[in-house]
Amino acid sequence: MQQTKYFIIDFDSTFTQVEALDVLAEIALKDNENQAKAIQEIKDITDQGMEGGMSFRESLKRRVKILQANKKHLPELVDRLSSLVSPSFKRNTEFIEKYKEQIFIVSNGFKDFIVPIVKKHGIKEEHVFANEFKYDNSENIVGFNEDNILSSNNGKPRQIENLKLNGEVFVLGDGYTDYEIKKAGLAHKFYAFTENVRREKILDEADHEAPSLDEFLFTQKLERAHSYPKNRIKALLLENIHEGAVNKLKQEGYQVEVHPAGMTEDELAEAIKDVSVLGIRSKTQVTEKVLKNAKRLLAVGAFCIGTNQIDLKAALHKGVAVFNAPFSNTRSVVELALAEIIMLMRNLPDKIMQMHQGKWNKSASGSFEIRGKTLGIIGYGKIGSQLSVLAESVGMNVQYFDLEEKLALGNANPCPTLEHLLQSSDVISVHVDGREENKWMIGSKEFDLMKDGVVFINLSRGHIVDIEALRKNIERGKIHGASVDVFPEEPLSNDHPFESPLMGLRNTILTPHVGGSTLEAQENIADFVPSKIIEYINTGSTTNSVNFPNITLPTLSQAHRFIHIHRNEPGILADINNILAKHGINIGGQYLKTNDTIGYVITDIDKNYQEDVIKDLKLVRGTIRFRVLY
Ligand code: NAD
Q: For ligand 1, is residue 269 a contact (CB within 6 Å)?
């Protein structure tokens, strides 16, 4: 027969995120000029006690003395600690409710404030074992009840012994006094709880590390709020990804490993084995060979715009969703384009150069306002359409040409043909994507069609413009000024030299592919990509995924979600539903989307079902991946 399980839970830095006496010191010593020093002293004594470096009673005596607290400080303490209950305790209400007869709070802290806090979370008052303050006539806290077992050294084991628990005892805590229970042979297992503090010395003694209550509940197969503990999700971030992304993934509870550089294929194929989330920028190649080893990989985040460094098909076959940041730097490119239109219309590059050479050339010749001029935008996508809005707001007339039907923003006009746009624009800015067919789409023929004195800008992709033809047209004066940020051949790194036929030309701005390179864009990317990945892991939504069918799912409540990724073959949805029917499962909602390669089926079902349905679903033909979410 299965033994009853008992759960002994510590309070300070376990049930709550902080040490209560530190907070009480902050409150009680608010107006004391030595507050900072006193708080530090209390913290130091707590740490020494926690790591077993000072006898417990001694540590308690010293701390209470420094505190100078009064009963009137306790309501504020309770309020503050209530808002600092550890998140994993807050969310696992189902566990507390179900096992309230078997859960005990055993703490070296004080009942005076512990009881009102834990009671609100469903823990029984008579299951709280802790010290009690002693007050004088003016309600000053002057000591503690020395008859209470918990005020003595080795108090926790003695308290547990008194409880005479008949079953398996599990201890969850962050300090040495929690480990003492196991050491005394009174606990089956000691879990070092590290959601709030991590004490290496305690970890050495522990049977397990529990970075959250979820981990404990997962290993014990108990009722829990999360199907899979987030601390088990390892994220590997390469190529110096912005720290905003690192923090966001850490806050979500993932283990995050960071590498400043990229990795070779072989290095990554090795490192990827236990990784669930991979973050890269443009240099790391995520090849079929890498993906073959990626047994636990759920998602790849490209912290950039392009994704051709990733084998998207191979990722699909593995059921790995890929996300990028398609518009995080849109605004940055648009601002640069607008600035360059003004610079070139005013002939500024030449004037700036002359000034640096000591030449004062005050003249209006060749300088124009942009107001009232016609801007022709080729490619009215994210960047093109944003530029349209900004350019119009500074007084330009905007027209555009796009292969697809696009909504004209503001007063912009669509052009019927590219030729029409080329022939009638004063400024031409290219913002098409880098598809193969766009190679050299602007060459001699197109330049010939343009107005004399046109300003030409390419911030899109290097291979789109025939660079020799551009050079000739700048040299012969057909083009008044040009800006180029992207080149057919770009140096591999800042250490490699740059060469181009455009170097040294008049009124020509050359920039090193920095259209989207601003700190704001980096921050946007660092926020956007992890958000999409976290959403995918938590809900199954694939909004903005580059390779998965895009589907935005409702949030889950009171249900379990089955996520099934399979090869796109006819009849699989029917197979899935037959299995659900065979197991008598009631479907709350079902969503299906496919692309050429995979089918993505999400089924929300009632929480009460027999686990063997999962086994059957994993055996459906064509299954690539299956996971359960709640
Ligand atoms: P997008 O995909 O949103 O827009 C591209 C648009 O071009 C689409 O509307 C598409 O229909 C249109 N298009 C494609 N081929 C066309 C053609 N032959 N004729 C007319 N229209 C065509 O892309 P986006 O985010 O706006 O980016 C635009 C370009 O800017 C891309 O090439 C991108 O790589 C580049 N970019 C450069 C930088 C930089 O640092 N310089 C930064 C970001 C993006």
A: no
Q: Does domain 5-220 have CATH number 3.40.50.1000?
A: yes
Catalytic pick among 461, 480, 560, 561 = 461
pLDDT digits (tens, 9 = 90+) for 166-194: 999 999 999 999 999 999 999 999 999 99
Q: What is the pLDDT of residues 470-523, one digit of tens each?
A: 999 999 999 999 999 999 999 878 889 999 999 999 999 999 999 999 999 999
List 188, 420, 513, 625, catalytic entry:
513
Kindly give the distance from the C-alpha atom of residue 437 to the centroid of ligand 1, in angstroms, as a whole number: 13
DSSP state at residue 13: I
Atom number in ligand 1 closest to CA 517: 40
Sequence-separated (6 or more) residues with CB below 8 Å from residue 356 = none
Q: How far is CA 232 from the centre of its chain?
A: 15
| Three-class DSSP labels, 445-456 | HHHHHCCCCEEE
For 554-629, CATH number out of 3.40.50.300, 3.30.70.260, 3.40.718.10, 3.40.1130.10 equals 3.30.70.260
- With a 6 Å cutoff on the Cβ, whether 305 touches ligand 1 is yes
* Alpha carbon of residue 94 to chain centroid: 27
Nearest CA to ligand 1 atom 29: 460
| Domain topology for 233-328+518-552 | Rossmann fold (3.40.50)
pLDDT of residue 33: 87
Lowest mean pLDDT among 241-245, 348-352, 361-365, 553-557: 553-557
Nearest Cα residue to 324 out of 539, 531, 602, 592: 531
